[in-house]
Protein: Alanine--tRNA ligase
Organism: Inhella gelatinilytica
Amino acid sequence: MDSTEELFREDANQWTCEANVLAFEEDGGLILDRTVAYPVGGGQAGDAGVIHADGVSWRFGDTRKSKQHPGAILHVIEGAAPLPGTRVIVEIDADRRQCHRRFHTATHLLCALLPYPVNGCSITQSYARLDFHTDEAFDKDALNAGLAHWVAAARPVRHRWISEAELDANPSLVRSMSVQPPRGLGRVRVIDIDGVDLQPCGGTHVNNTADIGAVLVTKIEKKAAKTRRVVLGFAAPDVT
């Protein structure tokens, strides 16, 4: 089976696309030849949305990578699946995607503020967390000030591809202890926040740090002798 073309890797601003149905996994979901929907991975939750075809709609509550067909992406739909060859339109939940993008980019700012290896990550619509491998104490106020500084600095956020050889020559680019960049493709995707952070990452991000908006460290926890957890949330809107 052909792989699913991952449109979200090149353009996280794209909410919809046309695609062809390739197959359906009875215990998994619908496989398309291309999609804008990000599959759960690297700590980031998968996209949700709706698939339309010929006046019929199927809602998918999750997107994930197929274990049966490497390179294929599953859209976990409700109800009977459209037949292979059906032309469909994929439309993701834009609000959910934007939350993921804002939180994911904010975690990169945290990595710039806290120069420790990362040994855990979770990015959802309502919060994000990073676990840092250190026994150092963190200052919540200082972290919030640092986040606010980089958001206000409005630094461009771009992605590019480097060769595996380039990554091997710069092993310090890899910050995560728990999730390693995929190998075997010959190239690795990196996220470059101008003058702030550069590291391999396959997730979706905003175009500029200003697009993160008001985000705050809501909790700092000591999870183990060498693990400090930082939890992020969105600041409540000012209603005054």
Observations:
- DSSP finds three helices and 15 strands in the chain.
- The chain has a mean pLDDT of 93.
- The longest helix spans residues 94-113.
- The radius of gyration is 19 Å.
